[in-house]
Amino acid sequence: MQQYKITFLPNNISVNVPAGQHLLRSALEAGVHINASCGGEGACGKCRVLVEQGNVEEEKSGHLSDQDRKKGYRLACKSIVSSDASIRIPVESAVDTSALMRVSPRNTTRVEQIEFKDIKDQGLLVPPMQKYFLQLAKPDAQDNVADVARLVSHLGLKHDEHGLEVSLPVIRKIPAIFREKQFGVTVTLARPVRESGKTQIINVQPGDTTCENFAIAMDIGTTTIYGQAVDLISGKILAESGTFNAQISYGEDVITRIMFAEKADGLDKLQKVVVESINKVLDKIIRKSGIARESVSVLTLAGNTTMTQLLLKVEPRFIRRSPYVPTSKIYPPIKAIDVGINLGDHVTALVYPQVSSYVGGDIVSGVMGSGMNRTHKLTLFLDIGTNAEVVIGNKDWMACAACSAGPAFEGSGIKFGMRAAKGAIEDFSIDPKTYEPMLITIGSVRPKGICGSGLITIAATLFEMGVINNRGKFERNLDTDRIREKNDIYEYVLAYRNETQIDRDIAINEIDIENLIRAKGAIYSGCMTLLQEVGMGFDDIEQIILAGGFGSYVDLEKAMTIGLLPEIDTDKIMYVGNASLLGARMCALTNQVRREVVGVTNMMTNFELSETSSYMDHYVAALFLPHTDMIRFPKLKKRMQERKDALAKLR
Amino acid sequence: MQQYKITFLPNNISVNVPAGQHLLRSALEAGVHINASCGGEGACGKCRVLVEQGNVEEEKSGHLSDQDRKKGYRLACKSIVSSDASIRIPVESAVDTSALMRVSPRNTTRVEQIEFKDIKDQGLLVPPMQKYFLQLAKPDAQDNVADVARLVSHLGLKHDEHGLEVSLPVIRKIPAIFREKQFGVTVTLARPVRESGKTQIINVQPGDTTCENFAIAMDIGTTTIYGQAVDLISGKILAESGTFNAQISYGEDVITRIMFAEKADGLDKLQKVVVESINKVLDKIIRKSGIARESVSVLTLAGNTTMTQLLLKVEPRFIRRSPYVPTSKIYPPIKAIDVGINLGDHVTALVYPQVSSYVGGDIVSGVMGSGMNRTHKLTLFLDIGTNAEVVIGNKDWMACAACSAGPAFEGSGIKFGMRAAKGAIEDFSIDPKTYEPMLITIGSVRPKGICGSGLITIAATLFEMGVINNRGKFERNLDTDRIREKNDIYEYVLAYRNETQIDRDIAINEIDIENLIRAKGAIYSGCMTLLQEVGMGFDDIEQIILAGGFGSYVDLEKAMTIGLLPEIDTDKIMYVGNASLLGARMCALTNQVRREVVGVTNMMTNFELSETSSYMDHYVAALFLPHTDMIRFPKLKKRMQERKDALAKLR
After folding, report:
1. pLDDT in tens, A223-260
2. Using one digit for the tens of pLDDT, what is the confidence trace for B521-541?
3. Class of domain A372-406+524-609 as given by CATH
4. If you count residue pairs, one on A and one on B, with CB atoms under 8 Å apart, how many are there?
5. Helices (DSSP H) in A19-142: which residue ranges?
6. Which CATH number fits domain B129-206: 3.10.20.880, 3.30.1330.10, 3.40.50.20, 3.20.20.70?
7. Which residues in chain A have Cβ-Cβ distances shorter than 8 Å to B354?
């Protein structure tokens, strides 16, 4: 995409941004503060800037007079980059606060998508499904062998396929289908995972349908179910869709779901509703992609341990009770229709195995989907969703743990927390003198609340700008009305009532920050504990793979500032998105994954953090911003020292 | 059993019979005629005999005065052998008709039952199911592996069992069952049929149930369903039961069933009712044997091609249409509950494969159950039930065919035909001078009709005694009222109305005999055709294995007299009863059968007799008693010559 250079004055800070991006966001990415409290909707009129060189495309706003416009004033939030430009930010005080203001520029991670070609290039392609069109000889008095025998012997003679197995549902279809197009039929062969296994004839279709061979990959999340339709010939994703897991009505998290499952018929009920959600996603992606349901050859599923057991109707009672025993690590392939999934009766559902009660198939899938199990690099894999799971290791060994991080990063337990949806504050900076905010919301509309990545950025900024201390408490003596005490709790007002969509002030308070610190502390200390158990430290980490719902939006430097991530070169961090879904798709595309999956799962040594003696010490030490031990965060330490020096100079 | 020697006078013919047998039957076995037309009920009073030496136990009858009794007269049908004895038969004429009367004495075949010990002794025992009791360690904080992993690793460490597979239904049971008896559990392992296969954990039960390990074997007949409960440890049959196949309401034979299945919902309906019958048999044998349904580990099924397809809900349409194509030879193992059979969800049903549309799994099962596939002896296997199937061969090759014999041997198409049940005439002889009959019925009650074995004996006796000719037509000029013309059809009255249970005369007519000749002709010519196709003749046959419902009652010499069987030393004939059920039981007891079954099935070369050019000639030649070519029946020829000579002497 075309990039333009935007220079912000007076501090002369430049940033390259893609054409079409708003100026407000560009400023934020440059680490330049512009007051703005309406999220980017153009409602507050605060983000006036002067275009000194170059042009911006302008969306009209009532907050600027024609005269102002002629002078070159624009609202940053309503101006779209369309050339190189110099933009002057009106400075209310003459004091140059740039030395105070500069935190790290926005730095999100590169998104890594594994493609079909990569799989091929890496020699990982062992196609799981193959179709042949066969023109069989018609039976007559001299040749009246059984239909199935005719098929099997034809495949033997013409395609060198031997030792084939045929299931009963296929046998049932055969008589009618053979005769529908004059004994011209397409067979679907499912290749064995192990070399010693047998190829199975899983489907027969009339006529030639060899070009229609599809898979469905699904991630069964506690909150959301995502699915993709994949073309098994090209490897392309044909459609993708998601929906909420309807089990949510019976409990927000896995523990409440398990409690519901323990009631009479509870398990049946939960199984039924998750399948309804799965079928809804299926319907959507089948409709979107336009594929025939009949031509779906395989289904792959990944979910956490509780989601997997609920879907398979396996009693989850002992997952939530010490010593936290799941029922099984590995589940055999099952018929999709046997659990109620609306696909042809030839479709096998492959379910990712579980490591432990809280490190489930979604994580195994993520590890395999991200390629962590094939790299020699020491990798930290971090999946932050409704809960957080950590895996450390490489192709030779892996240690993993679930962190009791809670859903703070999904907005839960945060007063104005919300999911990453339209109106969620996702970016933030603060004027170092007036403490006025700059807010950017998803969709550039007036704010409704704070999403996970926004929360991290807000907390990191407030901390680095000296608004909160390292225990997350507000400085009581700052000269701003935005910090106030309400019901005995200190808070910072991000947006006043008239600037929001919710007819209330939106603020972040000390309890929110405490929850965030607990959550990030649980994750950081989880990683620390695992590393220490294997005799290593963060310095040994060669790459970090981030996965989960909010990963791509997280400002990595901010995440390091609060001590969620260790300080590491951001080039070594990659984001794989919904890793669970990625692994499910990989498993659909190649048997290589299936061959390795049990080995990988068994290799993943699970640590119950609550049972690991060093964990509590690590956790307590991590309940600070960024950590009790600042030596671990040298870049932050240096920035904070520079700010301190600048402050001293100003005084 | 104690045997006694009974000598019948005046002709001084002796026979050894078991204690407790009636005199009437003993006479019949000796080939001695005593008039008796009430079947052995004591109603006609005709079978008076004089006990000259020894004693008989007597059931009282109103037909003898006290005076007669004192003189030593008894009714043969009411007298039970209890010592050696000499019995004089009052002869109405002074003429010694013994030379005329002697046909062959009754000669039924030895019943061959393959026992568990035989299987063991023959090295065929590859136990398919094994149970272990395991006391697992209870999980704790240091050892909280998944339940299934705990089980699998225990089996690996303590029992050297590796590469185990566990199905979803078992996984579902595990959490509760492990905790029911403090982690003391019994597992059932199903051994793979092929060496390369994997052992499967198919069941878990709380506590120690290692001594309860059962199989159910079933024969799914067109008419009747039989089942046995088998102890997999001792090999013993614990209970046996049967019931009519409720599909009978939708058609007597396979063709009418297939026609019904072609109607809307017809297949579903037939599947449902046969499963109901199966479940009824199951209930009976489970009740009779007192075993727990839960401890049934496996189900084995054998049925003809149509019965198999109907049970498995596989479209049977093409079975009845030229070129008579079945859908599949081999069916994979299926879950019993998947077809509606009321057994635990861990139970796999193994279904015998089919050779062709009319040589089905019942025959393959019979071949394997009887051991035909393991003998080097050239064997003729003959299963006569609702239809008749022939297999010729040995362990190295086999040829088979279905004969369109029809159900004459089950009493169908015979005016007074009936199944082998109480009141059926099963034995018969005739006074060579008066043509008065001696009848013995099943249960020694007044006759109701004629069963298959009775029909053979009656026809053979009428033929050998010159009452019917070799085309089955009655001699028109014999001096007896029993031969009469009724509605233009000649018949022989076996029992008059007042001697029967049905308030009508019971007779055998020329149409009956014609049907019998057609049926036996179809079987004999089927055998001939097969033999000729492989370049052999009856002389090459080293043994005959008879199977089917009526086999054990058939008088072999009589069957040879009518030309149903070739003349062969009767020692070479054995009867295996319900061979289909026998094979099903063998398959339940040892994996050896399962290993061999596909090979045997593929080895069985099917001949469609209607497509085999020589068949029609053989058939036409066989439409005589015993055959156009008497040279094939030298013993009969000799007896008939002797009778002719005796007759000439008497004249």
Report:
1. 899 999 999 999 999 999 999 999 999 998 899 999 99
2. 999 999 999 999 999 999 999
3. alpha beta
4. 129
5. 23-30, 66-71, 98-101, 116-121
6. 3.10.20.880
7. 146
